[in-house]
Write a structure and sequence with these properties.
This protein is mainly beta. Among the domains are: 84 residues, no CATH class; 123 residues, no CATH class; 73 residues, no CATH class. Helices cover 9% and strands 40% of the residues. The two termini are 68 Å apart.
Length: 455
């Protein structure tokens, strides 16, 4: 009953009489699911419950919308009406669709064959087998020309298909890549990159539409990004991850490798004051530096100083592996010819003496660039996960087990029948005898383990 509706109403702003009944004239979320009062409902063939202050009513086979005062905010003329969502609802008339707002105003003509739900403030609409995008005011964002439109403005962009080819458009409907690709993959996690296929080969474009890798691979995975949330602020500020904003697996000729967006850093440290001071006390500092950096000739430097992202993704490993697992921190497991090993993200640092400012000054150029190295030989039949507490992992060769650390060093012989690495001290079994081994490879006896358990 309407009295029950009133009893849950909050913030009443207005009331009016409908017949002999007092009705709240505000859209109150508490009214969700409440039936239309009989005094209002009796003049319609059918009514639906209130939802966000509105109810659908049916008369002579047509639908309209009333508010909680019983006022018809639309004509009773539609074949169907969706529930309001963020103040908008889809309506159908004569097998065509349009959009109305919460005042009942048609913000689009009733002319579309279908209309998707709004997402991120936009909706896909279809007419004559072609798609376009509209915003919440009904304004057309794109021409009605596309065969397919992907998820609308995910990360500010949308994938579109036209005449059998794919490209991406921005939030203004502007083409930001050539519509030339045979297929497109999903956006990377942060939306910076998307994989594309052209003539049977795959590569990547960025959110400006620029190709950031060669389109030459048989298959590609999505770019991975380092998880910095688990790292200290100091580690985040200066970390190998900073040299690899994104890294992806690629496949060529049935083998896998890695490509990466790589950052280079160059810092020039002037040496003139040191040279002047050394000359005063008779030290040949230039010869000393030449010896230290193994340089006979001091080259002329005219490059850029600072941090630079290389615009084209680099192949940071050979394309040779049978399998590459995702990086955990700086390490990833790789498989080659049936054997496992570990690769590591690291930083290649180089310092050299250079002349600069038209060869009038001498400086020390520090160059840093991300690189990936083999941490272990490709010789293991199996490699287990690293223990987070102590940083060691079990490895197997010919049915025997040993332990390695995160430097790739074998801290035990590969001789044990089994290893349980779930503890700070790995339990390594050989001929029924258990050794308790720490992350340095030091062996402890059972008595020590009993002491640890009591602690």
């Amino acid at each position: 009953m309407i009295g029950e509706i009133l009893s849950v109403a909050k913030g009443i702003s207005k009331v009016k009489t409908v017949g002999k009944v007092l009705v709240v004239a505000s859209m109150i979320p508490d009214l969700i699911g409440e039936p239309v009062p009989y005094e209002i409902a009796k003049k319609y063939d059918s009514t639906e419950n209130f939802f966000d202050g509105f109810a659908h009513v049916k008369f002579n086979g047509k639908w309209g919308v009333i508010d909680i005062t019983g006022t018809e905010i639309t004509p009773i003329k539609y074949d169907s009406i969706d529930k309001f969502n963020d103040g908008l609802a889809r309506v159908e008339l004569n097998e065509k669709w349009g959009i109305i707002d919460s005042t009942g105003k048609e913000i689009t003509p009733i002319k579309y064959d279908s209309i998707d739900e709004f997402k991120n403030g936009f909706a896909r609409v279809k007419r004559n087998k072609k798609w376009e995008i509209i915003d919440t005011t009904g304004k057309t964002i794109t021409p009605i020309k596309y065969d397919v439109i992907g998820t609308i403005f995910e990360n500010g962009f949308a994938r579109v298909k036209l005449n059998g080819k794919w490209g991406i458009i921005d939030i203004k409907g502007k083409d930001i890549s050539s519509i030339k690709y045979d297929s497109m993959g999903k956006y990377s996690k942060n939306g910076d990159y998307i994989s594309v296929e052209l003539n049977g080969k795959w590569g990547f474009i960025d959110k400006t539409g620029k190709e950031v890798s060669l389109i030459k691979y048989d298959s590609v995975g999505n770019f991975q990004y380092p998880n910095l949330f688990s790292r200290t602020l100091c580690e985040q500020l200066y970390s190998v991850h900073n040299f690899y904003p994104a890294i992806a697996c690629v496949k060529l000729n049935n083998k896998w490798g890695l490509i990466a967006i790589v950052v280079e850093k160059k810092k020039l440290e002037p040496l003139q004051e040191e040279i002047d001071m050394a000359m005063e006390i008779g030290i040949d500092i230039i010869s000393m530096y030449k010896e230290r950096y193994k340089q006979d000739i001091i080259e002329s430097f005219k490059g850029e100083i600072g941090e630079k992202t290389i615009p084209l993704a680099q192949e940071v490993t050979p394309i040779k592996y049978d399998f590459i697992e995702n990086f955990e921190g700086n390490l990833a497991f790789v498989k080659l010819n049936g054997k496992w090993g570990i690769i590591q993200k690291t930083i290649n640092s180089k310092t050299r003496l250079v002349k600069y400012d038209n060869d009038t000054k001498l400086g020390k150029l520090n160059e840093e660039k991300g690189c990936i190295i083999s941490l272990t030989p490709m010789k293991y039949d199996l490699i287990g996960q690293f223990d987070n507490l102590s940083g060691k992992a079990p490895v197997q060769i010919n049915g025997k087990w040993g332990l390695i650390n995160k430097k790739g060093e074998e801290i035990t012989p590969i001789k044990y029948d089994s290893i349980d690495n779930d503890y700070s001290y790995a339990q390594c079994t050989l001929n029924g005898k258990i050794d308790y081994i720490d992350n340095k490879g030091i062996i402890y006896d059972r008595g020590f383990w009993n002491y640890i358990e009591r602690k």
